[in-house]
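@here heads up, posting the sequence + SMILES for the guanosine-5'-triphosphate run so it's all in one place. Ping me if the SMILES looks off, I pulled it from an old spreadsheet.
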Amino acid sequence: MTLHKGKTEIPSAREVFTDATTDNSAEAPVPVTLLTGFLGSGKTTLLSRLVRDQSMARAAIIINEFGEIGIDQLLVTKPKEDMVVLSNGCLCCAVRGELADTLALMWRERASANVPPFDKVVIETSGLADPTSIMLTVTSDEDISRRYVLDGVLTVVDSVQSLAQMDEHPEAVRQIIVADRILLTKNDIAEDGIVKKLCRRIARLNPMATLHNVEHGKIEPQLLFNVHPDGRTDSPEKVAEWLRLEEGEKACGHPYECDCHSDHDHHGRDSHAGCGHDHRHFGAAHSHDIQSYSMFYEGPVTPDGLQVWMDAIARLRGPDMLRIKGLINVEGLPVVIQAVQHLFHPPVELKEWPDNERRSRFVFITRGIGRDEIEATFSALSLHSGKDTGFMLDPQGYERFAKAMTAAL
Ligand SMILES: Nc1nc2c(ncn2[C@@H]2O[C@H](COP(=O)(O)OP(=O)(O)OP(=O)(O)O)[C@@H](O)[C@H]2O)c(=O)[nH]1
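bot reply: prediction finished. Complex structure tokens:
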């Protein structure tokens, strides 16, 4: 299905549904699955595997990426014409209207047989999405909720990083609170103690959700569907209630090590009354000071240079590098890099270039690190190892680089 996302090409939901030929709302509504989870938790990995399964043959997928250059759609092995990529901002706020418009257009195109007759929709949110507003679009928008029902919310949770992410980012907590199912990823590289602690915290935040381990995206496709066959109903009041739960969670900072929690009911509205902590309120959906930008790099990239660059970035500024994705031209080969804070996942070489672009491209989501600062580090990407030192770098060259890097960052 080819749906262009340029604003001029997508009519508004209202325009679509006032057109009599599209008003086939007597048809059964299409179930929508919301796949959410914080930055780098493993949503695209999961979706990439899933789309190869026969049960997804009649699914339409909407991917929302935070960042100007969409990289995920290059990595999901779904035929491109079956995807709608919204890459001009966060689905939940800046382009909330656009989600409704996109769903409306998909409905119309299906009704006119311009696209394959999909019978379900999966929306992969951006990692910084507040899922509650997306859920409200599906369940409460007058036009959309007559044609679509919310089947379920699945939240992908990274076992290594998410305890820290929950402490710092309200979005990560919201994503867990609203989940029907929690998909725990990266247990293979997480310490046992951390996973147990995480499971306890999740159970306190959302005891109704079921937990499932997902390693490298391996999942039974059925897990995604038929969660609420008649549609999950999320009223604005219910969403407001979740937000109150989140305030309670955030107010105490570390709820499960916090003594005051032992006799709290986290699902009561005033569960924190009298606990003696300052209760902070979150009006904004996103953490402050977060920037997202995309960059191209035309210079040469060597395997050693890439390794050094990744090591240095992780070591020097890991906590503020919320997410890095890149498709890098390493001596002519397409190599995907992925990082979540200090954790760089092993680079993966693609079998072929996904398009005609040959410049290296990056998407960064950072806290307080600007584009210029990153640009100043790119010279490291072309470093060569010392001739007689095998894979070791020339020590003097490295020293020069490390100084430049520290100054830049
Ligand atoms: N070790 C390990 N790595 C994983 C697992 N699942 C995903 N990853 C890696 O985690 C990195 C991020 O995965 P993505 O699927 O891109 O994460 P995402 O949630 O789509 O990221 P955003 O688009 O930034 O929100 C990739 O390098 C994956 O290979 C897992 O179960 N174990």
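MO: The chain has two domains: 13-247, 290-408.
MO: One more: The two ends are 43 Å apart (CA to CA).
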